[in-house]
């Protein structure tokens, strides 16, 4: 049933310079998988494919994705269980279900498992591309951080552009790129708890996950650099099981 074949009128296959996002495509029907993957790549997405639920979870655990296109009827582990498993750890990634079954109850089950959208097979490929685009737009509009170039903490001046800060006695100290990105993220979201998930997404992006202690070590370094008494932190706070928070110096004295 070659009803899925659809090619947009692209003539510039190798010209997309900016990746629009990284997608995980989970589909066991080979023809359908390769057709969807090809069309997503033509749209400028980076696509990794899995042909069963087990492979999908393995790929998901070792990579970062913006969106998962997930078939429901899959070998090894079905799509609903894959979705539930993903949602245990990650609430941000978009999940779009594909299913041959178009019953309302299936749709509801998919959404209950934590999916953001649902498309019944057979579907129009253009509709799939459009739905993906709309979901990813939602993400980008939500993540628009206001950008700052510098900040002052306890008389230390941070220069985000040059990855440095000036200590209280005027010395220039270098920060690593990731330290700078994390510091900036926490300061831009001051007084809010920033989840580990969001930190991974904003600071590590598509790179491999850091080990569990890495973010803690960054926070310890920030305390050493910026706290009056690093053993009694008032500015850089870990909220157990939730994330990390930068509290403004003024408000911590209230
Ligand atoms: Ca299937």
Give structural notes.
The chain has 254 residues and is of the alpha/beta class. It has two domains: 10-142, 3-Layer(aba) Sandwich (Rossmann fold); 150-253, Arc Repressor Mutant, subunit A (Orthogonal Bundle), CATH 1.10.10.10. It is built from nine helices and twelve strands. It has helices at 30-42, 53-62, 79-89, 104-112, 125-142, 177-188, 196-204, 214-226, 249-252, and strands at 22-26, 46-50, 67-71, 94-99, 117-120, 150-153, 156-159, 164-166, 172-174, 193-195, 236-239, 243-246. It has a five-stranded parallel beta sheet, with helices on both faces. Strand 3, helix 3 (79-89) and strand 4 form a beta-alpha-beta unit. Helix 2 (53-62) runs parallel beside helix 3. The N and C termini lie far apart (68 Å). The relative contact order is 0.09. Residues 1-5, 7-17, 142-146 and 250-254 have low confidence and may be disordered. It binds calcium ion (CA). Calcium ion is lined by residues 28-29, 71, 73-74.
Q: How would you concisely characterize the structure shown here?
A:
By secondary structure, the chain is α/β, with parallel strands linked by helices.
Main sheet overview: 5 strands, parallel
Structural class: alpha/beta
Could you report the average pLDDT, rounded to the nearest whole number? 83
CATH class of the largest domain: Alpha Beta
Oligomer: single chain
- Widest sheet: strand order? 2-1-3-4-5
Count of strand segments? 12
Poorly predicted runs of 5 or more residues: 1-5, 7-17, 142-146, 250-254
Whole-number tally of structural domains: 2
What fraction of the residues are assigned to beta strands by DSSP?
A: 15-25%
In CATH, the architecture of the largest domain is 3-Layer(aba) Sandwich
The end-to-end distance, rounded to whole angstroms, is 68 Å
What is the CATH topology of the largest domain? Rossmann fold
Q: How many helices in DSSP terms? A: 9
Distinct ligands, ions and cofactors found in the model: calcium ion
- Radius of gyration (Å): 22 Å
The CATH superfamily of the largest domain is known as Response regulator
Q: What letter string, H or E per element, gives the SSE order?
A: EHEHEHEHEHEEEEHEHHEEH
